[in-house]
Protein backbone atom coordinates (compact mmCIF):
# COMPACT_ATOMS: atom_id res chain seq x y z
CA UNK A 1 0.00 0.00 0.00
CA UNK A 2 2.87 2.43 0.70
CA UNK A 3 3.76 2.33 -3.00
CA UNK A 4 0.33 3.76 -3.82
CA UNK A 5 0.99 7.02 -1.99
CA UNK A 6 1.81 10.20 -3.90
CA UNK A 7 5.52 11.00 -3.63
CA UNK A 8 7.34 14.02 -5.00
CA UNK A 9 11.03 14.83 -5.16
CA UNK A 10 12.26 18.37 -5.69
CA UNK A 11 15.43 20.32 -5.24
CA UNK A 12 15.63 22.50 -2.12
CA UNK A 13 17.91 25.48 -2.80
CA UNK A 14 17.88 26.39 0.90
CA UNK A 15 19.02 22.94 1.99
CA UNK A 16 21.07 22.30 -1.15
CA UNK A 17 19.65 18.77 -1.20
CA UNK A 18 16.71 16.93 -2.67
CA UNK A 19 13.58 16.88 -0.55
CA UNK A 20 11.10 14.03 -0.90
CA UNK A 21 7.54 14.47 0.34
CA UNK A 22 4.29 12.53 0.44
CA UNK A 23 1.01 14.33 -0.36
CA UNK A 24 -1.02 12.12 1.99
CA UNK A 25 1.40 12.88 4.87
CA UNK A 26 2.22 16.58 4.41
CA UNK A 27 4.19 16.84 7.67
CA UNK A 28 6.73 14.22 6.54
CA UNK A 29 9.79 14.86 4.38
CA UNK A 30 13.26 13.46 3.77
CA UNK A 31 16.39 15.29 2.64
CA UNK A 32 19.32 13.72 0.83
CA UNK A 33 22.03 14.67 -1.65
CA UNK A 34 20.77 11.89 -3.94
CA UNK A 35 17.19 12.11 -5.24
CA UNK A 36 16.68 8.34 -5.17
CA UNK A 37 17.93 8.14 -1.59
CA UNK A 38 15.53 10.94 -0.64
CA UNK A 39 12.64 8.98 -2.16
CA UNK A 40 13.72 5.80 -0.40
CA UNK A 41 13.98 7.70 2.89
CA UNK A 42 10.52 9.23 2.77
CA UNK A 43 8.96 5.93 1.66
CA UNK A 44 10.53 4.20 4.67
CA UNK A 45 9.35 7.00 6.94
CA UNK A 46 5.80 6.70 5.58
CA UNK A 47 5.90 2.92 6.12
CA UNK A 48 6.94 3.44 9.74
CA UNK A 49 4.18 6.00 10.34
CA UNK A 50 1.57 3.73 8.70
CA UNK A 51 2.71 0.83 10.91
CA UNK A 52 2.59 3.04 14.00
CA UNK A 53 -0.88 4.38 13.19
CA UNK A 54 -2.13 0.84 12.55
CA UNK A 55 -0.66 -0.46 15.81
CA UNK A 56 -2.43 2.32 17.72
CA UNK A 57 -5.71 1.75 15.89
CA UNK A 58 -5.65 5.23 14.37
CA UNK A 59 -6.92 6.14 10.93
CA UNK A 60 -4.42 5.64 8.12
CA UNK A 61 -4.82 8.13 5.26
CA UNK A 62 -5.89 6.33 2.09
CA UNK A 63 -3.69 6.81 -0.98
CA UNK A 64 -5.10 9.43 -3.35
CA UNK A 65 -4.45 7.04 -6.25
CA UNK A 66 -6.82 4.47 -4.76
CA UNK A 67 -9.69 6.90 -4.17
CA UNK A 68 -12.67 7.29 -6.49
CA UNK A 69 -13.68 10.81 -7.51
CA UNK A 70 -17.18 11.78 -8.63
CA UNK A 71 -16.14 14.89 -10.52
CA UNK A 72 -18.26 17.03 -8.22
CA UNK A 73 -17.28 19.34 -5.40
CA UNK A 74 -19.00 22.21 -3.65
CA UNK A 75 -17.44 25.66 -3.67
CA UNK A 76 -18.71 28.45 -1.45
CA UNK A 77 -18.39 31.95 -2.91
CA UNK A 78 -19.25 35.40 -1.72
CA UNK A 79 -22.64 36.34 -3.23
CA UNK A 80 -21.17 39.16 -5.33
CA UNK A 81 -18.61 36.82 -6.94
CA UNK A 82 -21.37 34.27 -7.60
CA UNK A 83 -23.43 37.01 -9.31
CA UNK A 84 -20.45 38.19 -11.39
CA UNK A 85 -19.63 34.65 -12.55
CA UNK A 86 -23.29 33.92 -13.38
CA UNK A 87 -23.40 37.07 -15.48
CA UNK A 88 -20.13 36.16 -17.22
CA UNK A 89 -21.47 32.66 -17.98
CA UNK A 90 -24.74 34.06 -19.34
CA UNK A 91 -22.90 36.52 -21.56
CA UNK A 92 -20.68 33.70 -22.85
CA UNK A 93 -23.73 31.49 -23.47
CA UNK A 94 -22.48 28.68 -21.22
CA UNK A 95 -23.57 27.24 -17.90
CA UNK A 96 -21.99 28.47 -14.69
CA UNK A 97 -20.60 24.96 -14.21
CA UNK A 98 -18.91 25.02 -17.64
CA UNK A 99 -17.46 28.47 -16.97
CA UNK A 100 -16.07 27.39 -13.58
CA UNK A 101 -14.60 24.22 -15.10
CA UNK A 102 -12.98 26.26 -17.87
CA UNK A 103 -11.50 28.72 -15.36
CA UNK A 104 -10.13 25.91 -13.20
CA UNK A 105 -8.34 24.31 -16.14
CA UNK A 106 -6.96 27.60 -17.45
State the major sheet: 3 strands, antiparallel
Number of beta strands: 3
State the helical fraction: 40-55%
Spatial arrangement of strands, main beta sheet: 1-2-3
Which architecture of the largest domain does the CATH hierarchy give at level 2?
A: 2-Layer Sandwich
Cα-based radius of gyration, to the nearest Å: 20 Å
Describe this protein's structure.
- The chain folds into 2 domains: 2-65, Double Stranded RNA Binding Domain; 70-105, no CATH class.
- Helices cover 42% and strands 19% of the residues.
- It is elongated.
- The protein is of the alpha+beta class and 106 residues long.
- The model has no long low-confidence stretch (mean pLDDT 95).
- A hairpin with a 2-residue loop joins β2 and β3.
- α2 (79-92) crosses α3 (96-105).
Main traits of this protein?
106 residues, alpha+beta, 2 domains, 3 helices, Double Stranded RNA Binding Domain, 3-stranded antiparallel β-sheet, 3 strands
Brief summary of the model shown:
This protein has helices at residues 35-55, 79-92, 96-105, and strands spanning 7-12, 17-22, 25-32. The chain is α+β, with helices and mostly antiparallel strands. It has two domains: 2-65, Double Stranded RNA Binding Domain (2-Layer Sandwich), CATH 3.30.160; 70-105, no CATH class.
Amino acid sequence: MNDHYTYRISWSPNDREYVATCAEFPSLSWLDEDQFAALKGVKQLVAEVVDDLGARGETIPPPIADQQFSGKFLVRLPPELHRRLALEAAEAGVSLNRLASFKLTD
